[in-house]
Amino acid sequence: MERVRYMSIDVDARGLACPQPVIGVKKALDSIAEGTITAIVDNSVAKENVIKFATANNCGVSVSQQGDHYYIKITKGKAVPTEQTFKQPQTSNGKLVYLISQDTLGHGSAELGGVLMKSFMFTLLERDPRPDVIMFINAGVKLTVEGSPVLEHLSQLSSHGTQVLSCGTCLDFYGLKDKLAVGSVTNMFTIVDELSSAAKAVTL
Amino acid sequence: MAIYQDYDRLVSLPSVHHAIGAEKVLIAAGIKIVAMPTPREIDISCGQCLLFKANDQAVVMEILRKHQIKWSKLFYRDAAKRLYEELASFGEDTDV
Amino acid sequence: MLCQLPKPTDPNLLVGIETADDAGVYKLDDNIALIQTVDFFTPIVDNPYLFGQIAAANSLSDVYAMGAKPLTVMNIVAFPNSKLDGQVLLKILEGGCAKVMEAGAVVVGGHTVDDDEPKYGLSVTGICHPDKVLTNANAKPGDALILTKPIGTGVLATAARADMFPDGSAAAAQSMAKLNRKAAEVMACFPVNACTDVTGFGLLGHIYEMASGSKVNIKIAANAVPLLPEAAEAAKMGLVPAGAYANRGYLSTVEFAQAVPENIRDLCYDPQTSGGLLISIPADRAASLLDVLHKAGVIEAAVIGEITTHGKGEIYVY
User: Fold this and answer.
1) Alpha-carbon distance A58 to nearest alpha carbon in chain B (angstroms)
2) Cα separation, A97 vs A134, whole angstroms
3) pLDDT tens across C141-153, in order?
4) Which residues of B touch A51 (CB under 8 A)?
5) Considering the domain C2-132 in this protein, what is its CATH number?
6) A53 touches chain C (CB under 8 A)
7) pLDDT value, residue A94
8) Which of A71, C14, C69, C70 sits CB 3.0–4.6 Å from C105 for a disulfide?
9) Highest-confidence range of A91-95, C15-19, C23-27, by mean pLDDT?
10) Measured between alpha carbons, how far is residue B47 from residues A76, A104, A150, B35, C287 in Å?
């Protein structure tokens, strides 16, 4: 029991008959807007039912078995906004635009920067809303060519409607013009236009 | 949005360094791997995990063992349901 | 367990325990066979009168499932005399009696024991022409399978205990209290091959009994299975009784198409109380039987599948 000493248990449903475990979890989840609750159950029927309840209510679930008890961590997220929640300036086109200016994320360690960029692209793919446009300049174009560590993520973003654009000058500079593997080539005019007319622009 | 749904195994690692090391050796061995940030369902602090497919489990665990790369936990992953079920823990389960 | 007892060798025993059928059948003469069955259980609803009705309907169902007519019943009662008021028992018995009268049978007696937990049910005796007895072991390839009541009573009983889905739970109680009498009377006018009723082993459990008893394989269309209101949502929410998991673990010849969602699968294993009749009839007569059932008030009856080939009881749900 060493490992679980510091875990806070919100719902201890051990020894409780069906459907008490589900009721307990429902009460606990109803009492928070977002966050994590942990439930313990002592049989697989209760485990299966709590998992079903959490999944049916759009929560994430992580299950760990310790002896004959199951620790079930349930993650409740913010309600997904149904409309765009940021104000759009008069002249914007409502787009969400990212400008990636290098092939790593952040400053300090290049190795860590590579890891972070991969994590970032993974999460960009997983989360809503997905960007409308991602533009790559300078060393950033190394991410859209053959051999890029994030090629798969970018290909998926592209096939689901995100425009992936790589600066032609930069590709040329790095001798990568014929190695472009996702999206299309763009120029500074497009880059500036997209940035200035976007509802939200993020530069990394 | 549920992505890489056919990657139904997730292995969490104790540090970024372990993750980088693991990723290198697994890619070198030709295993299809996806690096991802640790999902919130498993841990709220930022960390790295690797996704792979159940078919590759035996090979992956053998490679990590051979290179003496410490991992933390192995999970079954159902991306569509955001469900992770712990299958094994480093040091405790010797037959994964 | 019963198979560990010495097997009866009386030639007049038409249906014994070998095929796990709904009731025992004993031939008296060329025109009359005696049907006998018994069932009782603990309360599944709070209202004692309703409980009495449901338990009685459940017990009577087995006689209908054999194609027989109930004649006499005896009450079986367990009651905590020191903990509950006698009025509660009276209400239970009144509910039971009302259903027995509705079935055209009579209560001839009964037996009560003191017990911590109330239980109620009936021992039922019925009659049938020996040649018209319907077992669960005669389904034929090419038959259509009809179910006369929607499923989901186990899940909705669990929901009721969680104070969720009150409308669904109320609909389930009404469904459980309904007799299978009309369905049985309509069935008698058709060339039905096999029949059983759906109870504790769940829809798939009883389909399996029919399949293995008849030595056939059966295909079920998940979309065609009638469900009680809110049962699908309740199952999705994890209000699935332990009995459903037990039923699932017990059956090994069931295969689901990938598209069948988890909650529907759970409902197929959900233990039912006082469920409908499962009727196997040649496909060309199915539409006609369904039509007459609907006209007789058995409005939820539906064709849910077909008997495909001879086999060992394999069931495919798509």
Assistant:
1) 8
2) 6
3) 999 999 999 999 9
4) 83
5) 3.30.1330.10
6) yes
7) 86
8) C70
9) C23-27
10) 20, 17, 18, 11, 61
Q: Which of A11, A16, A18, A44 to substitute to test the interface with C, most C CBs within 10 Å?
A: A18
Taking the CA of residue B68 and the nearest CA in chain A, the distance in Å comes to 21
Domain C143-317: assigned CATH number = 3.90.650.10
pLDDT: which is higher, B93 or C290: C290
A14: CATH: 3.30.110.40
Q: Looking at the domain assignment, is residue A91 inside a domain?
A: no
Handedness of CA A166, A168, A169, A173 (dihedral sign): positive
Backbone angles phi, psi at B84, to 5 degrees: -125, 125
Residues of C in contact with A11 (CB under 8 A): none
A44 Cβ under 8 Å from any chain C Cβ: yes
Q: Which residue has the higher pLDDT, C3 or C106?
A: C106
* Domains in chain B, CATH or no CATH each: 9-89 (3.30.70)
State how far the Cα of A75 lies from the Cα of C206, in Å rounded to an integer.
39
**Measured between CB atoms, which of C162, C238, C242 is closest to A52?**
C238
Q: What is the CATH classification number for the domain harbouring A110?
A: 3.40.1260.10
Q: Specify the pTM.
A: 0.76
Check whether A83 has a pLDDT greater than 60.
Answer: no
Q: Are strands A96-100 and A69-76 parallel, antiparallel or unpaired?
A: unpaired
Residues in A touching B73 (Cβ below 8 Å) = 64
| Contact between chains at A63 and B82 (C-beta distance less than 8 A) | no
Q: Which of A60, A112, A115 sits opposite B39 (nearest CB)?
A: A60
**Nearest chain C residue (CA) to A48:** C238
Shortest alpha-carbon distance between residue B81 and chain A (Å) = 6
Asked whether this complex has an ipTM greater than 0.90, the answer is no
d(Cα C235, Cα C237) in Å, to the nearest integer? 5
| Binary contact (A50, C158; C-beta < 8 A) | no
pLDDT > 50? residue A85: no
Whole-angstrom distance, CA of residue A70 vs CA of residue A45? 11
Tell me the residues of chain A between 100 and 129 that have a Cβ less than 8 Å away from chain B: 111-112, 115, 118-119, 122-123, 125-128
Q: Which of B89, B4, B1 has its CA nearest to residue B53? A: B4
As a whole number, mean pLDDT of residues C250-269 equals 95
